[in-house]
């Protein structure tokens, strides 16, 4: 979850016409619509748009104009498309992920010509830019054809037709307000013609929808056509159009500005008119680099990812017709790396003798060093020990009492990752001859203890669990241990001395979609003895022990 810069060209028009004036107003059937401005005549309009200055006579007949030199400002003039010369143009790929055109992988910077076929996989997406700044984003699971990609020869306006065979396309047409030529999105059941707007079209085998977010469109199914303004949408099925107001956009709840866990729970208030919701994450605030949508009937979704960066959460309401709301968005930042190490000892909640205490944790691949702290309060307001170094195992002398400890990774550039969970342990001043059985040094209980960051309560409430794997190789092709745990720690039988790797992932009920952390290395030496390979002990967890 790279950034892409917007590459739409700024068009400068000749003939004294200022690009900032939004005179061109889109298309209606076979005609280009132009809103008349002060000083316009049929002669200069024919010279600007048509294939010859004599086209003014066609305009006079078509629009029933009495005086070709006196036009009413603000009125709409129809110019036949078959008299407007066009040149071939291209669409530029400004973002692509897991998508292809005619079997070739798409990459940012590529140009697509007329008749190109675009396919996005289950996790793919593409954003295209046309010459007037219009952008079209094709989310995952879509098949789209560029049926026509051209531009008006004399005015620089685009003449584009896109066919959505399956899936969806969201368009932001002429965002620079320099006017609209022709921009149409068709589906097997619906044609949406645009007059400068932002809208979203969805298509399935039998039903198509168009949701208008800004401006207006003309929706046509068979011979039926309707003008649809912002805040409304239309469903087309069997040649019939059903118009309705869009559902209200969700009101997002508290979303953390800084996320330091692989997954978090995003929630929102139930929206009026919503039958369901869908959420996605984009890599930019313009929603150019849009990730897959996750549909849900509950007002909440689990958002997971493992790449640091700035993101935008996108949530939309969906009504019973399939119309979608304006997007509710929230920007957040992910900072996961270097990851917090898995801690092994002292184990959480265990009791040891006072004196020399061993601290150990896993080795993180992208960490250059580590910070370790020990305090007599969970707040770590005044740590007794602050240790910075490259070792993943060290000893410190501590007296009797209750203590907390934690560790974090430090990158080569000095950037620090999140702290591990604060672990509590107790030290007792007890002579060796009076130690009660299993009361002291319970960490040396023949088990290898591992602790990882706990999931947020709202995640566990939604059914999320932690999947933990231990393997003798970093590819995890044959894990020694594979568990699904409801907690944040496990005690497993000590494996033979050697190098091992451990990783965790958030399990949302589908093992194939678990997002795993980077493997961390554990060097099991003399301080971890031999034992038989017995099942892992994990509170509330289910066990999969692989041979």
Automatic annotation (TrEMBL):
The record's CDD domains line, in alphabetical order, gives:
LysM (cd00118)
Q: Where is the composition biased (Gly residues)?
A: 538-547
Q: Which residues form a coiled coil?
A: none
Q: Report the leader peptide range.
A: none
Span of domain LysM = 32-79
According to the record, the residues making up region (Disordered) are 527-547
Which Pfam families would you find in this protein's record?
FecR (PF04773), LysM (PF01476)
User: PANTHER family under this entry?
Assistant: LIPL45-RELATED LIPOPROTEIN-RELATED
Name by which UniProt lists this protein: FecR protein
**UniProt lineage:** Bacteria, Pseudomonadati, Pseudomonadota, Betaproteobacteria, Burkholderiales
């Amino acid at each position: 979850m790279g950034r892409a810069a917007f590459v739409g060209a700024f068009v400068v028009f000749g003939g004294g016409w200022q690009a900032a004036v939004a005179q061109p107003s889109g298309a209606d059937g076979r005609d280009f619509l132009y809103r008349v401005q002060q000083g316009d005549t049929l002669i200069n309009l024919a010279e600007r748009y048509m294939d010859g200055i004599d086209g003014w006579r066609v305009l006079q007949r078509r629009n029933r104009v009495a005086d070709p030199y006196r036009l009413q400002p603000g009125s709409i003039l129809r110019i036949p498309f078959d008299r407007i010369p066009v040149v071939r143009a291209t669409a530029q790929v400004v973002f692509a992920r897991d998508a292809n055109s005619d079997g070739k992988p798409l990459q940012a910077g590529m140009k697509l010509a007329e008749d190109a076929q675009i396919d996005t996989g289950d996790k793919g997406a593409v954003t295209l830019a046309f010459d007037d700044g219009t952008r079209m984003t094709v989310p995952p699971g879509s098949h789209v054809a560029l049926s026509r990609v051209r531009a008006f020869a004399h005015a620089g306006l685009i003449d584009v037709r896109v066919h959505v065979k399956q899936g969806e396309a969201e368009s932001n047409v002429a965002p620079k307000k320099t006017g609209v030529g022709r921009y149409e999105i068709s589906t097997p059941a619906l044609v949406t013609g645009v007059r400068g707007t932002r809208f979203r079209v969805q298509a399935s085998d039998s039903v198509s929808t168009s949701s208008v977010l800004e401006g207006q469109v003309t929706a046509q199914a068979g011979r039926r056509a309707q003008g649809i303004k912002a805040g409304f949408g239309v469903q087309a099925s069997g040649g019939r159009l059903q118009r309705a107001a869009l559902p209200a956009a969700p009101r997002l709840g508290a979303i953390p500005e800084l996320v330091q866990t692989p997954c978090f729970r995003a929630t929102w208030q139930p929206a009026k008119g919503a039958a369901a919701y869908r959420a996605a994450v984009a890599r930019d605030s313009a929603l150019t680099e849009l990730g897959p949508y996750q549909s849900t009937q509950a007002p909440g979704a689990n958002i997971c990812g493992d790449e640091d960066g700035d993101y935008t959460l996108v949530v939309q309401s969906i009504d019973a017709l399939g119309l979608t709301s304006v997007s509710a968005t929230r920007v957040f930042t992910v900072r996961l790396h270097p990851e917090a190490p898995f801690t092994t000892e002292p184990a959480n909640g265990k009791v040891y003798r006072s004196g020399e205490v061993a601290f150990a944790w896993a080795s993180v691949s992208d960490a250059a060093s580590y910070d370790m702290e020990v305090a007599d309060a969970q707040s770590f307001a005044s740590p007794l020990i602050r240790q910075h170094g490259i070792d993943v195992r060290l000893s410190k002398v501590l007296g009797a009492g209750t203590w907390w400890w934690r560790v974090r990774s430090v990158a080569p550039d000095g950037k620090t990752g999140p702290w591990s969970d604060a672990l509590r342990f107790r030290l007792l001043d007890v002579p060796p001859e009076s130690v009660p059985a299993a009361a002291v040094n319970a960490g040396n209980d023949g088990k290898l203890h591992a602790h990882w960051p706990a999931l947020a309560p709202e995640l566990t409430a939604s059914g999320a669990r932690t999947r933990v794997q231990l393997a003798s190789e970093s590819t995890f092709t044959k894990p020694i241990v594979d568990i699904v745990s409801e907690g944040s720690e496990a005690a497993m039988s000590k494996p033979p001395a050697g190098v091992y790797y451990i990783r965790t992932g958030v399990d949302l009920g589908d093992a194939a979609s678990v997002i795993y952390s980077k493997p961390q290395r554990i060097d099991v030496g003399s301080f971890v003895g031999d034992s038989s390979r017995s099942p892992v002990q994990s509170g509330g967890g289910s066990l999969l022990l692989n041979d």
